[in-house]
């Protein structure tokens, strides 16, 4: 097969695809809007699942290197009531099957595994156009263009490639995260660091929650989840980090002080992350020469699956392209027919998990599901 695969977006989905193509001897070019691998911090921990993320890494031939990135002890998990009572305290005994890594380190591993020049940094796609016969022209913000026989949109939530396949656009789900960090937490914030423990902490109430995680070293990274309109968040004065933290903390009135400190003692300015999702059952009819992977195809509310699914899509698409040399349509058809139900099921599981985490019965419904081993 001589077709060069053109991938838009060097996130985890696009990079796994490029790597799986490479190990199968198929060339690919990845066009990425960011100017360099370090243009943006790739913060956050990811737990890599046995049924999708880990097989994707295996297909990429990077399992040993991946194991070197795993942070020991981070699968420990606590669920707290809002008054700080510990309701569940699961240690990391090494059997969790969901090893935790830093997203930035995983991305760098994938970048290092590709031939030099595969990723073209600073190439922001501004538009795409069908030329007929499965060929497409990609336009970049700098005025240049590229023509390709096989185009893959791995360009995330606000994909520029998606309109070739569907007119669906992401919608706000009614919740946002506010992201905070405690740095050097064991020395500078010892009481709160102790409450978080060695892995993750969830303190939950209907419509709101505090989700904290010990990252590499003793950095504590927190997502404060809150059901509120976009207007409510727009009214926050993001130029005044202290005022934002205070206003968000007011929504957690009466919660334990060590939990509130995860909001008010942040060493970084709180970042507002509005949450969007595509329709759960999004599908499209086969369009010659183009497809999507990851969030571009099936953006869902955060449920711990998005990065795992994006990598799995990349691996599965790479495998399908390698299995059908010279027959792009057979490869894309096979990939999409498996991807549509897979992502729909994950999104509906994610919806159930969102209800368990933030619904009327939280945290007790969550704990019951956890105890009865019926977590989505
Ligand atoms: C707050 C939050 C927490 C999350 N936590 C988890 C978690 O714990 N576990 C998990 O599995 N998932 C998690 N997710 C979901 C996960 O981040 C995504 O599902 C995953 O990153 C999707 O990967 P992707 O490769 O499809 O897209 P992305 O990671 O979004 O990558 C897309 C790439 O395309 C580039 N790009 C975008 N537009 C253009 C353009 N026009 N031209 C060129 N390049 C472009 C971007 O710069 C980016 O590099 C979380 C999401 C959020 C918002």
Automatic annotation (TrEMBL):
EC number of this enzyme: 1.14.13.-
Coiled-coil intervals, chain numbering = none
Query: Which reaction is this enzyme known to catalyze?
Result: a tetracycline + NADPH + O2 + H(+) = an 11a-hydroxytetracycline + NADP(+) + H2O
Enumerate the cofactors the protein uses. Answer: FAD
* A GO molecular-function descriptor: FAD binding
Write down a Pfam family by its short name.
FAD_binding_3
- Binding site residues for FAD: 47, 103, 295
Domain of life, per the record?
A: Bacteria
One GO cellular component, as annotated: cytoplasm
- What InterPro entries has UniProt attached to this entry? FAD-bd, FAD/NAD-bd_sf, TetX_monooxygenase
Domain (FAD-binding): residue spans on this chain: 3-335
Could you tell me the Gene Ontology terms of the biological process aspect for this record?
Answer: response to antibiotic
User: What keywords are assigned to this protein?
Assistant: Cytoplasm, FAD, Flavoprotein, Monooxygenase, NADP, Nucleotide-binding, Oxidoreductase
Which residues make up the binding site for NADPH? 40
**Annotated compartments:** Cytoplasm
* Functional summary from the UniProt entry: An FAD-requiring monooxygenase active on some tetracycline antibiotic derivatives, which leads to their inactivation. Hydroxylates carbon 11a of tetracycline and some analogs.
Q: What is known of its domains?
A: Consists of an N-terminal FAD-binding domain with a Rossman fold and a C-terminal substrate-binding domain.
Q: How does it assemble?
A: Monomer.
| Family of the protein in this entry | Belongs to the aromatic-ring hydroxylase family. TetX subfamily.
User: Protein name, please?
Assistant: Flavin-dependent monooxygenase
């Amino acid at each position: 097969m001589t077709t060069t695969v053109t991938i838009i977006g060097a996130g985890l989905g696009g990079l796994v695809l490029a790597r799986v193509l490479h190990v199968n001897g198929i060339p690919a070019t990845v066009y990425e809007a960011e100017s360099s691998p370090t243009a943006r911090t790739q913060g956050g921990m990811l737990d890599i699942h046995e049924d999708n993320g880990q097989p994707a890494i295996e297909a990429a031939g990077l399992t040993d290197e991946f194991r070197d990135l795993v942070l020991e002890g981070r699968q420990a998990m606590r669920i707290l009531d809002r008054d700080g009572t510990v309701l569940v305290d699961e240690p990391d005994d090494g059997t969790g099957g969901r090893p935790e890594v830093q997203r930035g380190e995983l991305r760098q591993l994938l970048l290092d595994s590709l031939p030099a020049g595969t990723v073209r940094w600073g190439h922001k796609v501004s538009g795409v156009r069908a030329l007929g016969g499965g060929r497409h022209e990609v336009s970049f913000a700098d005025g240049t263009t590229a023509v390709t026989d096989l185009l893959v949109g791995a360009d995330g939530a606000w994909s520029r490639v998606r309109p070739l396949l569907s007119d669906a656009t992401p919608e706000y789900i009614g919740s946002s995260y506010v992201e905070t960090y405690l740095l050097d937490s064991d020395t500078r914030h010892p009481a709160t660091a102790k409450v978080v423990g060695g892995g993750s902490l969830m303190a939950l109430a209907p419509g709101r929650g505090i989700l904290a995680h010990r990252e590499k070293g003793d950095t504590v990274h927190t997502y404060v989840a809150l059901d509120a309109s976009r207007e409510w968040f727009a009214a926050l004065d993001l130029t005044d980090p202290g005022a934002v933290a205070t206003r968000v903390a007011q929504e957690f009135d009466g919660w334990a002080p060590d939990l509130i400190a995860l909001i008010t003692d942040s060493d970084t300015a709180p970042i507002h992350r509005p949450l969007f999702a595509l329709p759960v059952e999004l599908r499209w009819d086969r369009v010659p020469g183009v497809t999507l992977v990851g969030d571009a195809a099936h953006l869902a509310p955060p449920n711990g699956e998005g990065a795992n699914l994006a990598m799995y899509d990349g691996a599965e698409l790479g495998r399908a392209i390698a299995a059908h040399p010279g027959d792009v349509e057979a490869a894309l058809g096979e990939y999409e027919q498996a991807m549509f139900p897979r992502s729909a099921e994950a999104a509906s599981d994610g919806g159930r998990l969102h209800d368990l985490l933030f619904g009327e019965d939280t945290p007790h419904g969550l704990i019951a599901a956890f105890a009865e081993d019926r977590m989505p």
